[in-house]
Design goal:
Blueprint (H helix, E strand, L loop, with lengths): L6 H14 L11 H40 L4 H10 L7 H9 L1 H23 L1
Helix pairs in contact: 1-2, 2-4, 3-5, 4-5
Family: Belongs to the bacterial ribosomal protein bL20 family.
Pfam family, one: Ribosomal_L20
Keywords: Chloroplast, Plastid, Ribonucleoprotein, Ribosomal protein, RNA-binding, rRNA-binding
Length: 126
């Protein structure tokens, strides 16, 4: 069997790993085995935290909307219920941004939705 010299290919593979781990500290950026382990760990953490980030932002948006709607003598659950009832397809991000930038606009939207759903309720009962 002929001898295979793998120097170039192995060095290229290690260089890719070292470029990924160049910002790591200590042996995690210098030794091949620990660098490979840290790379796998970093990728696992990144994958897990992308899902976690979505959950965290959703919780933040819900908290912001709830804080503003309670000032207006309403509640978050009532607002969302009325949104779905009025068939307004707004995700939670948009009302949360409105709660920060322009509270009066969110008040107006919630009041309009509330009055519109009352109209729908009256018309359906007749």
């Amino acid at each position: 069997m002929t001898r295979v010299r793998r120097g170039y290919i192995a060095r290229r593979r290690r260089t890719k790993i070292f470029l990924f781990a160049s910002t790591f500290r200590g042996a995690h950026s210098r030794l091949t085995r620990t660098t490979t382990q840290q790379k796998m760990r970093a990728l696992v953490s990144a994958h897990r935290d992308r899902g976690r980030q979505k959950r965290d932002f959703r919780r933040l948006w819900i908290t912001r909307i709830n804080a503003v709607t309670r000032e207006n003598r309403g509640s978050y659950s009532r607002l969302i219920h009325d949104l779905y009832k009025g068939q307004l397809l707004l995700n939670r991000k948009i009302p949360a941004q409105l709660a920060i930038s322009n509270r009066n606009c969110l008040y107006m939207i919630s009041n309009e939705i509330r009055s519109a759903t009352k109209e729908i309720g009256r018309n359906s009962s007749e």
